[in-house]
Structure prediction request, 445 residues.
Amino acid sequence: MRIFNFILFISISLLLGQGERIKIHSISNDDVMDSLLTIIQQDSNPSLEFILESFSTQPKSAHYTKINRKKKIDTLIVISSEKINQSVLDQISNPLKLATIGFSLNKVRESIQDRYYFLNRELSVDIGIVRDEILGAIIKIDPEFESHFSGIIGMGKRGESWDVTGQIDLHLENLFETAGMYELYWQRVDSLSQVIRFKVYEPHPFGWDLGVHWNYHHEVIKGLYSIIENETMLQMFIPGLHLMNLGYSTGKTIPTGKGEENGYDKVGFKAFKLSSFRDSRNNRFFPNDGMMLFGSVDIGLQNGNGFIESEFEFNYFNPIQNNVHGYIKFIGKGITNLNNKVPKSRYYLYGGSSTMRGYLEQQFLSTQYFISTLELAYQPDTKIQFNLFSDYGISSFNTVKDGYFGYGFGMAQKSDQSIIKVQYALPYGQTLNQGKLHIKWISRL
Prediction:
């Protein structure tokens, strides 16, 4: 019995030692209650408890210890401003059921926002006592689904003739009320080069905790060869690393008769793929603060030889003054064979509106490239933006001094239903009439 009392004494002492000491200069019941109620009003944690440690009649004082007892939510209700299937809402809110009230709950709430692309606004969490010792919570989410149809037209002179390129992108979100994302992309570089791409993303298919990505890419390049690639990945959220994707990709390149004559071979490839994605930008179309980071690596075989392929992208927006912000971007891709040279049909083509503005689409060819972008934007209000920009690209770090430099200016205007972006860019050393005009429009659906 003495041993039990000793253990109980130690346990209570440790519990009290973890709390905050409070001294009330009265032992009157009303004064003590008023003092404790004042503290409660300043701390909305429903798991807050006060333990009387001691009191004194001369001078009159009461000593309490304030503790935050670890308590989990017993009853959870999720309310969404957009219609989402209940099985998906259950998966979104599941981490909150495992969190304790207080600091842990706040961290979980932040991680939920980091995980889902459509949760840009802060989650509202109302916690209260349903009945004795039973905690209930109402979680209110306000998803921002941005289904849209967009297109880009690029125009520039190639000798005496005009070179016109175009692309169309149909982007749909929450089409089946599963918070999924679906995309159909088509690009025409010229009569011999076209791209078609499908993307499907479901954050919680069949009520799973894991998300699923599927990407299909089919491209015809200059009438020389075509490339077909399939990617299937599972997605999970890991705090610190954010969204992690693990999966498998397969593909092949198929040369035409003309392609075979020019040294393009048939190549089959398959690889394990690992990627990570993190996005804290404050707006998907007109961001002026936050960052986006993406990285991926593929390790596998092509025609029986080992290869490694990697890709990264970093975007950073930083407000400078009230209406001015800076933007830097770094992108890079590279592929290497472990035993032989990289086949020509696995080289990258880059240049144009999405990589090197001022240059033609797919103007450059290399096994790797690195492009840095610097922009300065002026946004007098939320509807319009003007910017100056420059792009600098290299095919390897050994050719830093021999890179390609493009620069230009642009403007963007948005309304509730559409966004229009116009940019004019020049390669370094060229005259004004040798620049490239890029026009992009986005229509919200």
Q: What stands out?
A: The helical segments are 2-17, 29-42, 86-98, 103-115, 257-261. Residues 2-68 form one domain. The longest helix spans residues 2-17.
